[in-house]
Amino acid sequence: MTTMSGHFELISAPDGGYRFRLIGKAGELVAISLKYPTKRAAAQGIALVREIAGTGLIRDMSSSRRIEPSHRIRPSQPAPVHSGAALLRMRAAHNNPHPEHGQPQLSSAARR
User: Fold this and answer.
1) What's the number of domains the chain is made of?
2) Domain of 27: which CATH number?
3) Of 54-63, 82-91, 97-106, where does the model show the most confidence?
4) Is 40 helix (H, G, I), strand (E, B) or coil?
5) Which of 14, 15, 23, 70 is nearest to 46 (CA)?
6) Phi first, then psi: what are they for 56, rounded to 5°?
7) Is the separation of the CB atoms in 19 and 13 below 8 Å?
8) Is 28 among the domain residues?
9) Residue 1 structural domain
């Protein structure tokens, strides 16, 4: 049996446009996006969040920057080390995952 690690939900905003929600493994709401004018823009926002989540640094901007031992952020797995050329290829593939279409694609469920 495969376990899901979480997913994005594309939703209609009550005042027009679209938002997406990031839902965690246990079904909990992790984040909700800003409002986007189109589904395509929301899909691009999801692609950006995926990129940042995979590569972004954590900057502690809280008023108390002291990290208590029980709250240290530890990666679940060490980050892979890639050569510069491999990183450029991965970034190019990530920035245009559907070269035949040119834009991130929505699943059939998200297009409804």
Assistant:
1) 1
2) 3.30.160.160
3) 54-63
4) helix
5) 23
6) -70, 145
7) yes
8) yes
9) 1-56+82-98
